[in-house]
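Re: beginner question about structure tokens

> Can someone show what the tokenized structure looks like for a real chain? I only ever see the sequence side.

Sure, here's an example I had lying around. Input first:
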Amino acid sequence: MSFSQKILNWYSENKRSLPWRSTRDPYKIWLSEIILQQTRVVQGEPYYLKFIENFPNVQDLANASEERVLKLWQGLGYYSRARNLHATAKIVVNEYDGRFPNSYNELLKLKGVGDYTASAIASICFDEPQPVVDGNVYRVLARHFGVAIPINSTKGIKYFKRLATEVMGRKNIRDYNQGIMEFGAIQCAPKKPYCLLCPLNESCVALEKNLVQTLPIKENKTKVRKRNFNYLVWLDPNNKTILNQRRGKGIWQNLWEFPLLESENQLNEKEVRKELKEMVSGDDSFRLLSYNESLIVHKLSHQHLYTRFWIIESNVELENGISLEDLDSYPVPVLISDFIKAFKNSYF
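And the corresponding structure tokens:
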């Protein structure tokens, strides 16, 4: 029995019941694939359902405000995905008359759609024989065929795409592609694969050579950047505060946050107070409190944010201040969202 047929047999017996499995609607498949990039199914599924409820079709998504899209995305991270999602919806509506392209090559022209997403949509929706290669597929192929080429190298990306093309099940590409991804997520899992009961164990090179925990191989990760964040949480007599929208490139583009002091080193109260004196006239108009004595370390893929929130109680009313009750309506990073929840519960 061929590699692809074993995957198909396994999938027919073990596939999970997921909301996007029962459709060929390219909008829904595209939405699920964008959400599930760098996100586990258990975390992504509620977001998928939430987006479908709010935006049943691509026209609804295209017509929504970016702020609403970012708010629904809040907590998933990698917010460029949400911005690309919104931009692509507009492109599909304005340039393709609301209909997704039905081929791999045309799908690649959409913003935020790369090889993997184009392959997934083309194969699942239109039965085009294009192999998907995501993290799960890399793992299955690397282990089964004993491939030690780094999966994130230029050579590795080309090699695994070619290998995936050679072994894919062309006659039922829709189920095969979903099957090999599911197989990698459940059977050939990253840390505790079920090798003993695996239908591929007799031909698995990694199992034979005791390389299961070694493969796949990745090149060295990008160096993690350390940043020191000091958030200034203003409170005026009417319990209003300030939020600013992040602009430009970098993390959290277009999300909202409290006024930020970023520093080379951690700031103490005296240093923060000195910065504040340059913002306001005199220090009699405010009282400064450190909300968290221990630094909050918020870890992103290539950055660690060492964060302290400073409460600034001011006796001067804030111009254009935002009511604390309205904070939940703004799309904010998880770091800010978690603080707002804790702050509301503990401070008042």
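Each token stands for a local structural state, so reading them left to right follows the chain. Strands lie at 225-235, 240-241, 244-245, 256-257, 260-263, 286-290, 296-299, 303-314, 322-323.
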